[in-house]
């Protein structure tokens, strides 16, 4: 165990804290436990006395109700209780009693507060049990009995006694009392004799509703008792008071036994604390040591496999996060090794974009300037009525140039929608051969002007179905076929192949005979206004936006597209996903 290791620190701190807490507990129990017990017990009795007073004032109690209330209070608080008159003398109320139904009569058995040992009272009886009592009746109607023997063991009845046998209908007996409650009840008279000399100094506090709390010691046994007095109400014969007395002996004995117990158990507890602290410190520090080693390897950029702590607590989570961090850092460093190359590529791309922007502005200016100049010239000629015989021809040229500018503007608007991602596809299931055939039919005039022929190869299957946006795919076919016708040799044949190239893929190839595309132009023909031929002959060139639109449409369809130089010319192709469904018109 190293001097500055976390294991040693955890062991020392843990052992010290446990020993300090153990010592403080022992000291607190020795110094404060007895006082705390007395205060808590007296406080609980005081609170319950206030509750007793409220119940007493709320109802008009008869003798039975008052006996039950007193008996319940005595059982719940383990206290001897009595109601005193205005001379601080006990009133004749028995808190404990039994009620027996004998034939059709109810007989009340009053448990005396003195004269009967606790072991003579059966405490395991319940309402509904049969009970036999020998005693003396206390009234003329023979309904109240002073018991002498409860549950007699023989059948002989002593002279002068009366035996009754009946079913228990109600009862209130001593319960949860730590000492003989009947003996403690006898001590109430002794305590009252000693307190009467001090009654006058308590009168003012009692009248104000406060509880008087004093301690009294039994001279015969030396046991201390807590006495509480509380005013009840003004009765017909003057004030009445609630008197409660409880023994404080149990807490003293418990404190002495605890002190002896700690003397014997302290060495054992200290040894166990040291052993358990050592085990605990090693258990807690082991994952910390492993994590420290892993962190050291990470600091040295060693991203090899890190040992994982197989636990579900915070250490295990931290270990897994460090392993994830290691993998992420390793991947990040691998990416950073290519950062310079990518940065150079980005710089070149930026320069290329800037060049394209300049070319775009120049192309737009050129594309719009020429037709505007032509339109202006013919319009001025018409305005000056020059060559009136050529008026129809001039108007036709003006319309053609206006259509050309309108097509350019429409293509630019269409392209801008693609670039800002404003186009949403509406895919349907369509016949690709039918769509291509309809596009071919629309180019009949251009084909005749250059004496071109078109051969459409549909493969073995005459009707391949694809899932795509029919309007957008028609744009693709129009732009590619227009481009192929524009650059095809006169009196040549264009070939269009529609075939299945892979599972679920249909590829369309449009090939013409003509000049190949230069290698440096292959990757740029999809840019705005880019023409493979450097001349700006408006008769041989389109708007320069058709292939850029094709690129965006195919990217939205997530299909492949491209261009290849063939043996006799150039072939453009695009691929769509095949569908097995029916054609949707």
Automatic annotation (TrEMBL):
Q: Domain named HAMP: which ranges? A: 282-334
The family database entries (InterPro entries) matched by this protein are listed as: BphY/WalK/GraS-like (IPR050351), HAMP_dom (IPR003660), HATPase_C_sf (IPR036890), HATPase_dom (IPR003594), His_kinase_dom (IPR005467), HisK_dim/P_dom (IPR003661), HisK_dim/P_sf (IPR036097), Sig_transdc_His_kin-like_C (IPR004358)
EC annotation from Swiss-Prot or TrEMBL: 2.7.13.3
What Gene Ontology cellular-component terms does the record carry?
Answer: plasma membrane
Judging by the UniProt lineage, the source's domain of life is Bacteria
The listed locations are:
Cell membrane
Q: Single Gene Ontology BP term?
A: cellular response to phosphate starvation
* A molecular-function term among this protein's GO annotations: phosphorelay sensor kinase activity
Question: Which Pfam families does the annotation name?
Answer: HAMP, HATPase_c, HisKA
Q: Which residues form the Histidine kinase domain?
A: 363-580
Q: Which UniProt keywords apply?
A: ATP-binding, Cell membrane, Coiled coil, Kinase, Membrane, Nucleotide-binding, Phosphoprotein, Transferase, Transmembrane, Transmembrane helix, Two-component regulatory system
Q: How does it sit in the membrane?
A: Multi-pass membrane protein
What name appears for this protein in its UniProt entry? histidine kinase
Signal peptide annotation: none
